[in-house]
Amino acid sequence: MCVLTFSFISKKISYSEPSKLSFHLKFFVYYFLCSLLAFVIWPLFLFRPRNVKNSRLAATILKHITKLYDLKWELRGADILSEERGAVVVSNHQSSLDILGLFNIWEVADKLTAVAKREVMYVFPFGFAAYLAGVIYIDRNDPKRAREQLNMTSDVMVKEKTKIWLFPEGTRNKDYRSLLPFKKGAFHMAVAAQVPIIPVVFSPYYFINNKQGIFNKGHVIIQCLEPISTKGLGPEDIDGLVTRVRDAMSTVYKELTKEVITNLPSDYPHTTVG
C-alpha cells in the first residue's frame, strides 16, 4: 500500500500537464517534507537554542527538496551576500517557494536569519524549529510593536555580524509583472542599526499558476544588488530610502523577467500571475 501511494505521489509530482490535483499535491508534499525534516532536526537545536547556526544546518538539509521539483536556483552576486557583516537583506516575495530558494543560498550568506509573521511560530513542528533556529517572529497586526521587535535585533546584526532577511512587500505578490509597495519596517531597522541594505531580486515564477493548475520545472535567478549604505541617515530619510531601494529592485526585476521569458520555448505555457 505504501509503495503504491509513493508511486502515485511521485507520478503526480513529475506530471507536467496542468492539473489542480497535481498542483496542490506538489505544494502539500513540499510542506509535508519541510515539517517532517523540521520534526527530525529540532531536538538538535536545543544544544544551542536561538543560534543562527541552527538555521544554516536546517537549510543544508531542507534545500534538497528542490530536487523533487527540478527547480534551478541561480545565485548572482554571491560575493555581496557572502561578505561577513551585519546587514538587512530585502527581497521580493512571490510564493512559499521563496523559502526553498533561500535554503539553497543560505550557506553563501552564512550567518543569516529571517523575519516571519508570528502565526508561523504556532505551526508545529516547523514554526517551533524555526524559532529555535533564530527566526524572528513579529506581530504584523501591531506595526508599532513589530518595529520595536525589529529594532531590538540591532545588537545581533552589529555585534554578531548577522544578516537579517525580510520581505518588505509584506505578503505574497501573485502578479509577476511588478512589485508591491514596500512596508518600512526593514528600513527603519537598517537605519537604526546603521547597517547596509542588500537588495535581492527573485526572477518571476513563470512556472506556477494556481488557477490553471500549473507547476512545472523552472529556473529562478536570484540577483544580489550592490549594498545601499544607511550611514548618517535618520528617520526623516526613510521614505527616500524605500523609494530608492524599490526602484532599483523594480528595474532589475523587469530585466530578469525579460531574460527568463525570452529563453523559454515559444510554446511554453508561462504565466504572469501566480
Automatic annotation (TrEMBL):
Signal peptide: none annotated. It is an enzyme of class 2 (transferase). One of its GO terms (biological process) is phosphatidic acid biosynthetic process. Residues 87-205 form the Phospholipid/glycerol acyltransferase domain. It holds the Pfam family Acyltransferase. Its EC number is 2.3.1.51. The keyword Transmembrane helix applies. One of its GO terms (cellular component) is membrane. InterPro entries: AGP_acyltrans, Plipid/glycerol_acylTrfase. GO terms for molecular function: 1-acylglycerol-3-phosphate O-acyltransferase activity. SMART domains: PlsC (SM00563). Pathway: Phospholipid metabolism; CDP-diacylglycerol biosynthesis; CDP-diacylglycerol from sn-glycerol 3-phosphate: step 2/3. The keyword Lipid metabolism applies. Keywords: Acyltransferase, Lipid biosynthesis, Lipid metabolism, Membrane, Phospholipid biosynthesis, Phospholipid metabolism, Transferase, Transmembrane, Transmembrane helix. It catalyses: a 1-acyl-sn-glycero-3-phosphate + an acyl-CoA = a 1,2-diacyl-sn-glycero-3-phosphate + CoA. The chain crosses the membrane at residues 28-47, 120-138, 186-208. PANTHER family: 1-ACYL-SN-GLYCEROL-3-PHOSPHATE ACYLTRANSFERASE. Belongs to the 1-acyl-sn-glycerol-3-phosphate acyltransferase family. The HXXXXD motif is essential for acyltransferase activity and may constitute the binding site for the phosphate moiety of the glycerol-3-phosphate. This is 1-acyl-sn-glycerol-3-phosphate acyltransferase. It comes from Papilio xuthus.
